[in-house]
Amino acid sequence: MVGLRHKAAALKGLRQRLATASTASWATDPELLAVMVMLCLYEIVDDCSQQWTVHLKGAKDFIRLRRRQQQKTLTKTPDAQDSVSTFAELFFAFQDVMGRTACGEEVLFGSDYWAESERTIDLWMGCSPELASILSYITELSRTRRHLDSDSARAQFSLRAASLGTKLETLVQEVPNGEDHTLQSAAEMKRLAAVLYLHCALCGASPTTPLVASYVRRILRLVFDLLDSGSFVSITWPVFVAAVELDPAQDELWPETPHHAAAYGRPLVLRALAAMAESSVSNVARTRAVVAKVWQARDGDMTKGPPLDASGVSANCNDWEWYVAPISTAMSLA
């Protein structure tokens, strides 16, 4: 109840400010964007419903108007305000691009938002802006897949997918200000998950594809190591991507050795989600619920027979579109 009262008061104050202040006044005020960030976070942590995306869309419109006004007045915001506004814009853009990977809906902050050649890992994102840009391109391209109506269009699609794959395979993300092995591991997990996402969303790969199984193991190996080190930061998205592409018939990740116990995919994912729930400002319960639904669907199809034919397509859906996207609307995976 206390949270609801504060939320209502914040919304009321935000609406009053936007309604009564001049555009020139609020366009240079970072406080409004900060309020939007907090409202968005509240909705994500509360129940991660469609409501948080309402704030996302509102922030997109606000940022567009704000930039337009600043261009008109040719004013520069003080450094302290710039840092707040810059982070707020980054927050919304990254929430958008990561969440849209799951559901495949249209990206609000498109690939043009990101610096394609910026390979320095952002401390909050846990990856480079270049990786975020590539993810945005993959999601945008995936939306065109089912509308390819000619051989030339399909060939062009394949070329673009291959080009994005090459960028991911050769991407080197740089740690700012020296060595930080945890940050480097988090960024590498996201890069590996991006490769996995590309092959599932664009190339018809599924859990039984050898490449998918290999990347799932590599991602979860890094997750395993980070969990043992006590670090749970910035692993939500790679854990999700690996989890939904686990093969239910082959859950063993690596066998027992004289020095290490055997590891299995689903228990490791559940362990990671439990650890994140204790330390993450996100809605891990929603992530776990979606993962569980995907697992249940795959388990059911093992007994009934796979819904996909040999080419990985059923009703023109690939594996990601069949199992993941329909139940992943409005997920927060940043």
TrEMBL record:
Keywords: Nucleus. The keyword Methyltransferase does not apply. This is C6 zinc finger domain protein. One of its GO terms (molecular function) is DNA-binding transcription factor activity. GO terms for biological process: positive regulation of transcription by RNA polymerase II. Pfam families: Fungal_trans_2. The keyword Aminoacyl-tRNA synthetase does not apply. Coiled coil: none annotated. GO terms for cellular component: nucleus. It is found in: Nucleus. InterPro entries: Fun_TF.
